[in-house]
Amino acid sequence: MNKKLRDEATDKWFDAILLLRNKEECYSFFEDIGTVAEIKAFAQRLEVAKMLNEGKTYREIHQKTGASEATISRVNRCLNYGADGYRLILERLKEREEKRE
Fold first, then answer.
1. Are 60 and 50 in contact (CB under 8 A)?
2. Fewer CB within 10 Å, N or C, the chain?
3. pLDDT for 9-53, tens place per residue?
């Protein structure tokens, strides 16, 4: 974890997110907190991470998501050298998907 990121206000922000109970509450909260473009950017980055994890090429990812090469590269760096946040979420999403099958 990046120690520069952690402070009391950020802890409260994450605590607030953890209080959301369902997807509808997430939509309501994030719509109030961020712009549509910001929310879509986060969603795009998660999709990019998923596709990189599946071994897709930058070209395939750009064609499907519209993400720039810079965004794809940044997500790739996070996947390989980051705090493992993407990997954690991708594993949990995969586990949830497998339970549904």
1. no
2. C
3. 999 999 999 999 999 999 999 999 999 999 999 999 999 999 999
Could you say which of 1.20.1730.10, 1.10.1270.10, 3.40.190.150, 3.50.50.60 is the CATH number of the domain covering 35-100?
1.10.1270.10
Q: Which pLDDT value is given to residue 4?
A: 86
Q: Please state, in angstroms and rounded to a whole number, the distance separating the CA atoms of residues 65 and 52.
A: 12
pLDDT of 90 over the 80 cut: yes
Determine the Cα–Cα distance for residues 34 and 27; give it in Å rounded to an integer. Answer: 10
The model's pTM is 0.91
**DSSP type of residue 96:** H
